[in-house]
Amino acid sequence: MSAKARLLQLAAAVVIALVAATLAHAQDLVIGQVSSQTSPVTATNAKGLYAGFNVYLEHINSQGGVNGRKVRLVNKDDGVQAPKMIELTKEFAADKNVVALAAYQNTGGMAALAKENTVAELGFAMIAPFQGDKAIVGAPNWYPFRSGYPDEVAAMVKEAAFQQKKRVAIAYQSATFGPTIAKLAKELAVKQNLNIVLEVMVESGQADKIEDSVKQAGVAIGKADPDAILLLVGGRAAPLTVKAIKESPAQDAQIYAMSILPAQEAFKVAGHKARGVVITQAVPFPFSATIPVVSQYQKLMKQFAPDEALSFTSLEGFIAAKITVEAIKRAGPSPTRDKVLKALNSMGQLDLGGIYVDYSPKGREGWGGVDLTIIGPSGKLLR
After folding, report:
1. Which of 292, 296, 308 is nearest to 354 (CA)?
2. Cα(204)–Cα(212) distance, integer angstroms
3. What is the pLDDT of residue 205?
4. CATH of domain 149-281
5. What whole-number distance in Å separates Cα of residue 60 and Cα of residue 329?
6. C-beta of residue 202 within 8 angstroms of C-beta of residue 239
7. Low-confidence residues of the chain, pLDDT below 50?
């Protein structure tokens, strides 16, 4: 081969390498999410998480992304089935462009991931899942934001005791965390000297059985004559249960619900009777721009998703995306799963805009607060 031919061959190789490097740099950075937007148990909150997460990504991508690369959220639907969540997580592991996992939803699936240490074994970081239970987010490589369901239940039991409620009913959902959290609620209630007069399970996983189950629960609660009800139910069953209670002899009982009850849905289904329902919240209040991160959230929602209603779950998705993007930025110009993990472990206290998370090898702490809100006369949540 002549010197000229070798020179041309070398030049071609350099060009090919540069093109390959450019293409690799231009590839989107992918964040994997498993969350069911089709299940009646999770759909409302799943859609909110997805919307809020994508609004923040649109904001970042409109500014050129992270080091010139767009960040993209890919959602997979597990149908709220734990084995399916594990399977889909392993699918993400097979895609080298997936640099982290975030905003997962489905307590049963996440409990299985934590128990089997799947996230760490696959080399991923799990950022801001829709879960704050220490038994789950305490697993290696999990970086929580929201407070846990146990924190919410503790807050509602404490409030019921403070309000001197004497006869308490517990209504809990059949799927995911329902039975476990009902057991905890009963234990906490006993410690607070609350008299539990009824424990009733509400079908939440099988769509064709929800309405009949809710009606039966409403009848049982009415007969028990409680002065307070701990409503540990989410999805489509939650607002229907509120309606059933408000149409029963127990209509004047104070309802304490978890953050998974969509307030607007409860008001839509039960009407003005939903007024006064107390709902615990595991993330900050999204309707008043009293802290910088909420102000930013409201501004960007209006800009990128003007038809999307403000909600706790869309704010949670927004904040999850903010934490994720910050970790990717700190991972350097060529982020990998391992680099994102190292960035999170060395992050320390991160100011998200008036609220904080704190991640280090010694501990991974989320927001940590629980607020009490109440459904107002127009269906809006008040503090």
Report:
1. 292
2. 11
3. 80
4. 3.40.50.2300
5. 11
6. no
7. 7-8, 11-12, 14-25
The total of other beta-carbon atoms located within 10 Å of residue 46's CB is 27
**Dist CA 35 CA 58 (whole Å):** 20
Tokens at 15, concatenated: 């060009």
Enumerate the domain spans of the chain. Answer: 24-146+288-368, 149-281
Among all chains, which residue has been given the structure tokens 């309000």?
163
Whole-number pLDDT of residue 260: 87
Class of domain 24-146+288-368: alpha beta
Residues in the chain: 383
Element (DSSP H or E) covering residue 134: helix 134-137
CA pair distance 258, 155, nearest whole angstrom: 10
Whether the Cβ atoms of residue 53 and residue 308 lie closer than 8 Å to each other:
no
Best CA proximity match to 81, nearest among 107, 56, 44:
107
Fold agreement between 24-146+288-368 and 149-281: yes
Question: Would you say the pTM of this structure is higher than 0.85?
Answer: no
- Which among 275, 273, 277, 213 is positioned nearest to 243, based on CA atoms? 273
